[in-house]
Amino acid sequence: DEVFSQLVPGTNVNPDILIGARFLLTQMIVTSRIGGHFVGGFATDSFFGGIVRLSDETDFPDSGDLSTSDLIGITSLTFLNPSDEVFGDLSVTLKPGWYAIVFGSGLFRTSGVGGAVRNGRDDGTQSYIGWQNGEGWMDLNSFFSNSRFVVEGNIIPEPTTFVLLGTCGVVILLQRRRTE
């Protein structure tokens, strides 16, 4: 009720509005799930979350219906009432580079209506984006703030890390043999 009455601000997530944020990876990761803090009118309303590859920090997804090859992966989530953090499983490998996490409805067999609750903490590095039917993609930093969007996963060590560990292991074994 507080989100819908705007006592606690929120941003719409529905078939006409997609929201998200850009992010930069400096290492390869394998994601496990994505999500954030959302609220919906009915606990059975579904929405989607996806990861899209971008060319740089000013790029947007190539399409408003996420039907282009820049979409890396998609998952389904369920709005909760009262609001809470929700997650959907998504296992994809992401190389270093720019990406966007995007949430919406009306695509990928989802039809829910809800919102992203704006009661998190921004640190000044966020790059929020949105798409609205009839308007296209746009930067939302001046309008949209304090949302919690999450990509969870594990860092994949670079091959040079394995080579370094192997070399250290060989050196240690040789040193142990000399002392025996």
List the helices and strands and how they pair.
Layout lengths: L9 E4 L3 E9 L3 E12 L5 E9 L16 E8 L5 E6 L3 E2 L2 E8 L9 E4 L10 E5 L3 E4 L9 E7 L3 H21 L1
Antiparallel strand pairs: 1-9, 2-8, 2-10, 3-6, 3-7, 3-9, 3-12, 4-5, 4-8, 10-11
Characteristic key phrases:
180 residues; six-stranded antiparallel β-sheet; mainly beta; 43% strand; 12 strands
Distance between the termini: 73 Å
Strand content: 35-45%
H/E topology pattern: EEEEEEEEEEEEH
- Percent of residues in helical segments? 10-25%
Number of helices: 1
User: pLDDT average, as an integer?
Assistant: 82
Which geometry do the CA atoms define? globular
Low-confidence stretches: none
Sheet having the most strands = 6 strands, antiparallel
Estimated radius of gyration: 20 Å
Structural class: mainly beta
> What is the number of beta strands?
12
